[in-house]
Design brief:
two-stranded antiparallel ribbon, 4 helices, about 20% helix
Length: about 210
């Protein structure tokens, strides 16, 4: 087992490596399961590993099935702005919400569950989609003196990107590990996500640079 390379002021944030987002899941990200062995290896390098988990109640506002006549991947307007409607996924306590069975989780210092409010979606690990409701992760990191974060997981163009941008906004030095992520890429969303992350100050790197 390699020695940990990063100490108390650093953290690896592993975003939503859950069954719903892996092959065979309700909202499968192409190649989503391919990140698991690499993330397990990267986790050995960090004292602080944080996992996030989509954890939606049944009938969540982000589900197309909650809006009669609406198709998955269409958009509607909610009080907080545009909302993409998704197939039902990561329903709390379901197999889809569970972490991928090969993901090593026993060493995690914290699991952040998001999207728990039935009326608000949450891509980011830091702030929900209304852009007002904090998850508490920024406070947790600040209280422990963590100043640098590396982010991996699913999907690059949604939950990873939103989390990385909000990490920068919280004053954290932020890197996204490109080959430890996979994307959905709807209508150019991946290219837009990398542009937005770069504009926010996110560093883009590969696992051999970690």
């Amino acid at each position: 087992m390699p020695l940990k390379r990063y100490g108390a002021d650093c953290a690896l944030i592993v975003v939503d490596v859950q069954n719903s987002f892996c092959p065979g899941g309700a909202l499968a990200v192409p190649g989503g399961d391919e990140v698991v062995p690499l993330i397990n290896h990267l986790s050995l390098l960090f004292e602080n590993v944080i996992l996030t988990q989509d954890w939606h109640p049944a009938g969540h506002v982000s589900f197309a099935s909650s809006h009669p006549g609406a198709a998955p991947f269409s958009q509607i307007e909610l009080d907080y702005g545009k909302q993409t409607l998704w197939p039902e996924h990561c329903v709390a306590d379901s197999d889809g919400a569970a972490f991928h069975p090969a993901l090593e989780t026993g060493h995690a210092r914290l699991i952040v569950r998001k999207g728990c409010n039935p009326a608000i979606d949450s891509y980011s690990a830091f702030v929900e989609a209304d852009r007002r409701t904090a998850t508490g992760l920024a406070g947790y990191l600040a209280a422990r003196g963590i100043r640098k974060v590396w982010i991996a997981g699913l999907a690059t163009d949604f939950c990873v990107a939103w989390s990385a941008i909000d990490a920068c906004a919280a004053g954290l030095e932020t890197s996204v590990i490109e080959d430890a992520c996979r994307a959905i890429d709807i209508d150019g969303s991946l290219a837009q996500a990398w542009f937005d992350m770069r504009q926010a100050g996110v560093r883009r790197l590969r696992s051999d640079e970690v």
